[in-house]
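Internal QA ticket QA-208
Title: Verify multi-chain structure generation after dependency bump
Assignee: T.L.

Test input:
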Amino acid sequence: MVAEVYAASSDLDSANFALAGLFSQTPSSIVAETLAFVTNKGYTQIDIATLQLLANAINARLPGGSP
Amino acid sequence: MSRTFRWLEFILGIILGFSLALLITWWVAPNTRVLSSPAALHPSFRDEYHLLVASAYRATGDVERARSRLLPLHENDVVKSLLDQAIRYQSGQDVSSLFPQAGMQAVQDLALLAQDLQSTPTPSTPTLPFAIPSTVILPTRTWLPFDLISHEPVCDSSASISLAHIYIGDSSGQPLTGVQVIVTWEGGQEKFSTGLKPEKGLGYADFILTPGVSYTIQIQPAYQAFTGISSPTCDSDDGSTYPGGLVLIFQQP
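Actual output:
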């Protein structure tokens, strides 16, 4: 759901804030874990693309991430 | 001496017992994570869950997915729960620890989801692309401009206050919930949404008119503002006058 909101708003700060409040893991690790889960479980391409979008944005902001 | 040893034995026993307990609970037999049902959520977390579902619904327009996400909460009347939450937020309750900046958006999201869950699910209004790679297009909700189609005075000498009753509907006259109304006057502004008084209709909202004050009403930001709206003067049976209310009907063209 956070990824869906991010896909529509492009508000990465809010997405990070919500993920940090929901999970004890870091936003990047929980998104990566969820992405792997939905890919393995055969979720739709839209779901996978939505999560991938958020994962890319979070990773790009990490130190050493792509701009 | 023996007394000192006894104390040392006691303290050592406490430390050993505590360490053993930590050893067992952390490494030997840690508590495995148990998947609990969303129905068991504390009310404040339930609010967070509602808001998350409503925000995602605004983003995707997928009412069936929103409905399926709300089902595990096992609520008797999920529409009422969403509207109650919107009313609490509108009344000043802190919105959310997850979305502290949401404010009015949260009220609108909850009201919109409540309305769409209640009505027959239909594909959402125009689809807009967003920055997802490839050709993925997800639907999102957009509002069309509104016309003020009726502006009628209400004269009720028994009413203690003058109210502006606002009704907002789509092009076919169906009430629209979650539409933001922005009322401005000299020195003030008030924002609220339709649907917060469901007993008066899903497209209903109201505000108190101060006699002699001219108001400007805007339905949804960025749309036309209707100016010069004020409390009418009504005549009573004894020849005196009193401030009346208004019924304002806005509709999409």
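Spot checks passed. The CA atoms of residues 35 and 49 of chain A lie 9 Å apart.
Status: verified.
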